[in-house]
Write a structure and sequence with these properties.
The structure is a single chain. This protein is mostly beta strands and about 120 residues long. It is about 0% helix and about 50% strand. It contains no helices and 11 strands. The strands form 2 sheets. Strands 2, 4, 5, 6, 9, 10 and 11 form a 7-stranded mixed sheet that branches. It has a 4-stranded antiparallel sheet with strand order 1-3-8-7, with no helix packed on it.
């Protein structure tokens, strides 16, 4: 099973940028579709972005399109989320996940990283 460790969160002013990283252990990184999700206080965990195994296809929530970019580096077994033009409503704990086609669900392996955007 792949272990995931998120990092890169922090406190930033509205309009600022952050880059989140998710390092995956193990040698199976390339077989997984990867995703970023976020959970704001008192709310459900929401989809943010996904990237295919090859990295040639991405998908984004409408709320982050044009501002966030997901990417992956197979050599480093890491997936990134570049976040620009941050808004206070982006404040949340951000989690990365691997997709299990066999089970048809996302697996969240890390503790997440807190992103706080001040107005």
């Amino acid at each position: 099973q792949v272990q995931l460790v998120e990092s890169g969160g922090g406190l930033v002013q509205a309009g600022g940028s952050l880059r989140l990283s998710c390092a995956a252990s193990g040698r199976m990184f390339d077989v997984y579709k990867m995703g970023w999700f976020r959970q704001a206080p008192g709310k459900d965990r929401d989809f943010v972005a996904t990237i295919t195994q090859s990295g040639d296809s991405t998908d984004y929530a409408d709320s982050v399109k044009g501002r966030f970019t997901i990417s992956r580096d197979s050599a480093k077994s890491t997936v990134y989320l570049q976040m620009n033009s941050l808004k206070p409503e982006d404040t949340a704990i951000y989690y990365c996940a691997t997709y299990s086609y066999g089970l048809g669900k996302w697996n969240y392996g890390g503790q997440g990283t807190q992103v706080t955007v001040s107005s």
